[in-house]
Amino acid sequence: MAILFILLSVVVAASVHGVNAKHSENVVPHTATRENDFGIEWWENAVFYQIYPRSFKDSNNDGIGDLKGIIEKLDFLADTGITAVWLSPIFKSPQVDQGYDISDYYDVDEDYGTLEDLRELVDEAHKRGIKIILDFVPNHTSNQHQWFKDSVSDPTGDYGDFYVWKDCEKDDDGKVTWPNNWLSFFGGSAWQYNEVRKQCYLHQFAPAQPDLNYNNDKVVEAMKDVLKFWLKFGVDGFRCDAVLALFEDPEFKDEPRSNTRGVTANEYGYLDHIYTVDQPQTFDMIYQWRDVLDEFTYANKSETKIMMTEAYTGVEKTMLYYGLPDGSRKGAHFAFNFNFITSLKKGFNFREFASTIEKWFVNVPKEYTSNWVLGNHDNRRVATRFGPELVDGLNMVSAFLPGVMVTYNGEEIGMEDGQVTCEEGYDPQAIKDCATFNETSRDFERTPYQWDNSTNAGFNDGSQPWLPVSDKYKEVNLAAQNVAGAPSHYNLYKSLVAYKNETFATDFSNLDNLAVIEISMRVVQIIRQATYDQYILVFNTADGNETVRFYYSGGYYNVELASNEGNYKVGDLIGNSTLSLKPYECIVLRQVYLAGGPSVAYALPYMFLLGLGALMRFLNMKVLIFCSVLFTVGVAITGYQLKGDGPNSDWWKTAVFYQIYPRSFMDSDGDGIGDIQGIIQKLHHLQDAGITATWLSPIFSSPQVDQGYDISDYRNVDPDYGTLEDLKQLLDKAKELGIKLILDFVPNHTSDQHEWFKKSVAKEEGYEDFYVWHDGNVVNGTRQPPNNWLSEFQGPAWTFNEDRQQYYYHEFAPQQPDLNYANPVVVEAMKDVLRYWLDFGVDGFRVDAVPHLFEDPELRDEPLIDGCTDATNKNCLDHIYTKGLPETYDLIYQFRDVLDNFTETNNVDTRVMMTEAYDSIEKQMLYYGNVEGTTNGAHFTFNFVFISNLQRGFQVEDIVDAIKTWLSNIPTRFTSNWVLGNHDNHRVATRLGKENVDGLNMLTAILPGVMVTYNGEEIGMEDGEVTCEQGHDPQAIKDCSTFDQTSRDFERTPFQWDGSTNAGFTNGTPWLPVSTKSVEVNLAAQDSEGEPTHYNLYKELMEFRKNFQGDFTVDTSSPIKVNETVLQVTRRVDNDEFILLFNVGDEEQSGDFYRTFARYEIVVGSSGVSYKKGDPFEDLKLSGHEAVILHGIGSNGGR
Ligand SMILES: [Ca+2]
Ligand SMILES: [Ca+2]
Ligand SMILES: [Ca+2]
Ligand SMILES: [Ca+2]
């Protein structure tokens, strides 16, 4: 039986963005001297325990925790199994920001003790095998630091440029005109006027925390000296604070507005911080520090000194803190992964939980060490944030996941937030405004550690602690929990750390083979496949009992870890796939031998290892299995239930949307151009295939400069395609056949032949501002466009109109002037177009090119992308002023309202809107609806991951990654959709290989939500053959030398109906040549009953989906790689389980797959010839590129 490999999907999404790699020649040789016997270094699998010194242990009863207090507790840490501690700042500081305002990097603050105390702490910790990590605060010093004092008093002296000084004006009333609009993280201007220097200095944090000037080489050296000092002192590494703020734009440009709603001009979120955080130089600085560490390690043959960085930023930037994608520079050993803090909220469901983990894994390159931060001194405690009942499960998950586990002190005993009033508080941001203290203060998570139930929880000997001790300390304290055998948070935590230290440190290879799977709405399974062992974590996140089937690959599983007071105990043996879990129960299982059928003889050696108790349990379980087998035999195999049609409001959620390209579908009158009557003739094909919704590419009046996407009358049909009457006829016929009809809505621009544009050119009243007009600029007597914006079709996005003597803006061709959505009359006019077609009877709209709807009203130049210098190349501009502007989403929401109002007023089936937006996944989600979930937008926005992420020769990992990229980003309230191809991309057979057509159709059919099929894909059409002379794609025919690369004509050749001349498309001369492949590949040839054709398989898929209706949109699966080239996708609905297995490789594959049922049968025939519907399917056996869909039958559990 094959070992299962579940490979983590890996994408290096981070791009270099012009990071200066000038130091790459200085890369220090890697010190491989300190790996353990299993090839890992001390830090890679460690638990990093964060101590907040002020609140840990007060040794001298002055109310403030101190270094001697930590020394007292070192034995406790060692006993817990902690091997690395990082200390929040203990350096000299006026404590304006809790020690993050440092006045001397080289000395310890007297609150905490002395340098000697630190010496003792490091030595004593090392004796116990504990590493000590210090907090390095590089962005700013205290304004009491000598450097700053010197900088103020002597602007021309050695320290004059140590900080970021700029001239600024102060008038007689004391009002200062700031150097620019930058804001501080704490709100208000990031500048402070200094009366002595009569200049402003920058502070990205509090005014008492002036930013160091990293453009000054002396600062860079001085800070490296700080690192070197502490390395020499003997510390083991650094946690680097707020690194994202290190550098600022040297030109001090104003930052653009974020346009975030509900944020006032004084708040940090008011601006888009493109010039003050994550600047390219920042990453290089981190890499230089890494060099300092590595140089030290190398020179002293010491153990690895590590660096971890704190930056709340996007995942791509987070990866850059690790190093350059090409590996030429190294940065942090790990950059904190805050997904558990930023992505997860109380009451989370499975999808949110899984995506929290997956978001990290789909982005982190394999060679980086992962890390998991559950909490810290800046965020509410885990017990408060998620609920005390989830503490154990979450600790288990973070211990179970590969890489570093980070624990904030107190989480091991499940401490909740303390109670602090504004008067008692110290958090500088929060105490400024007591009205919002409860929302903003970080004091709650900083109250003293609860050691025991004595006065002040044992924090000190009775004097008033700096922050009050939580009143929960009598119940929640270490002493109460640290009792051998007690079912406590602490004892469980200790066993987790021990397990992590022992088990995962000795079986580290293939740690990145990981899958997160939902096994019910509330129960999650995580699989970790090591070289020889398979580990499984199952976590019930719900407050009720759950009986579930977990993904089970046969054999037996030993319970290795178990949360307190659950149904399962450590040492229990599990031999089938059914688990009964108590509320919040979490267990970790290890497969004790691989599948081969449950055999007592085979299992016996394990029984000796596991002891008599387990043997007893094993025998009981055998009886259960035996019974269930009998039961199975006695139960008729009924297959899965057919479900009735769902309510009509949800018809679209399970539909297949079939895109018809009318020009190439069917020509009824012999003019060579497909038309509406042609579609009417062929509607029975859609019905035969089982398709229930179709969308038509534009059929409106158009000069056809851009294949109908240049519309001269939104309310009429182009004569090429027929008449309004034809369209009415099509609608009626479609309705008769139960097929919904969707039209293409093209809101960004009209044709220049549209009457609106003609009237606008003539400045006719009411139409003056229908388009985006501007005089342009006169430079050296020459008229030039108003700004640097470029057209999607290359060249300036502005064309001068001689009649109106002004420029107009066009994102696409000059014949496609952009409508001006800043004009409310335009908005209303376009809503009227929607209403017109709704009244006409259509079922919805596909909305074209939505990211381009709005432009910056100030028409500002777009900045160059880092490292790009060619301002005439569209790809070199960062389209912050022409694409995805915040107003866009609101307009989409307004369009949605028009549809919903119609649906409601007329009490009809939902009228749907689907949007086309090639944009980042975060922005795509905004088209669905707003972040708060209060406003709806598109019913779905096209998901192009299979187009953008898959290439010919794709691997299983690529599919797994593409699916996860989408699923880990889409909020659960939205419906997913899957687009394999369209009229703008090469056909699936050409793009991804014709041998994969069936498997890919099966994949999109089984995934949750909407399936989108481009006409012809159901018969596996390949690209046609078109020469430049025959071509029509306006972008491509401009330059025949690149036609083969750029043209979209290939995927637009006529539909291949049969083997006759012109494939049955037309009696005349087709507008684009019919593919020569039509002789073999055509519908008629594939439409014979019982033959294993693309078309027959597609029909089976439609049938399968129809039967699956109801809960089909619920995502109950994660894609898994089950062996070298086989993908498994499992869907569970109620008690049914469906599994797709797809071999993407050329070689036959056999082995095992994840199963919970006793037996499986083929529910959708195979794409090859090995299986047909109804065949049993036992062990995995698939020839190259074969795919099957299985249905579990009989009872679940064992085999
Ligand atoms: Ca003290
Ligand atoms: Ca800075
Ligand atoms: Ca025609
Ligand atoms: Ca526009």
Explain what the structure shows.
With 1199 residues, the protein is an alpha/beta fold. It is 26% helix and 17% strand. It is built from 32 helices and 45 strands. Strands 13-12-11-5-2-1-15-14 form an 8-stranded parallel beta sheet. An 8-stranded parallel beta sheet has the order 36-35-34-28-25-24-38-37. Helix 19 links the parallel strand 24 (656-660) and strand 25 (693-696). The structure holds calcium ion (4 copies).
Write the layout of secondary structure elements.
Layout: E1 47-51, H1 53-56, H2 67-72, H3 74-80, E2 84-87, E3 91-92, E4 104-108, H4 115-127, E5 131-136, H5 146-153, E6 165-166, E7 169-170, E8 176-177, E9 191-194, E10 199-202, H6 217-233, E11 237-240, H7 280-300, E12 306-309, H8 315-322, E13 334-335, H9 339-342, H10 350-361, E14 371-373, H11 382-386, H12 391-400, E15 404-408, H13 428-431, H14 437-440, H15 478-481, H16 489-506, E16 514-518, E17 523-529, E18 534-540, E19 546-549, E20 556-562, E21 573-574, E22 578-581, E23 586-593, H17 600-610, H18 612-634, E24 656-660, H19 676-689, E25 693-696, E26 700-701, E27 713-717, H20 724-736, E28 740-745, H21 755-761, E29 773-774, E30 777-779, E31 782-784, E32 798-801, E33 806-809, H22 824-840, E34 844-847, H23 886-906, E35 912-915, H24 921-928, E36 940-941, H25 945-948, H26 956-967, E37 977-979, H27 988-992, H28 997-1006, E38 1010-1014, H29 1034-1037, H30 1043-1046, H31 1083-1086, H32 1094-1108, E39 1120-1123, E40 1126-1133, E41 1136-1143, E42 1149-1151, E43 1157-1164, E44 1180-1182, E45 1187-1196
Parallel strand pairs: 1-2, 1-15, 2-5, 5-11, 11-12, 12-13, 14-15, 24-25, 24-38, 25-28, 28-34, 34-35, 35-36, 37-38
Antiparallel strand pairs: 3-4, 6-10, 7-8, 9-10, 16-17, 17-18, 18-23, 19-22, 20-21, 20-23, 26-27, 29-33, 30-31, 32-33, 39-40, 40-41, 41-45, 42-44, 43-45
The protein binds calcium ion (4 copies).
Transmembrane segments: 592-616, 623-642
Protein name: alpha-glucosidase
Catalytic activity: Hydrolysis of terminal, non-reducing (1->4)-linked alpha-D-glucose residues with release of alpha-D-glucose
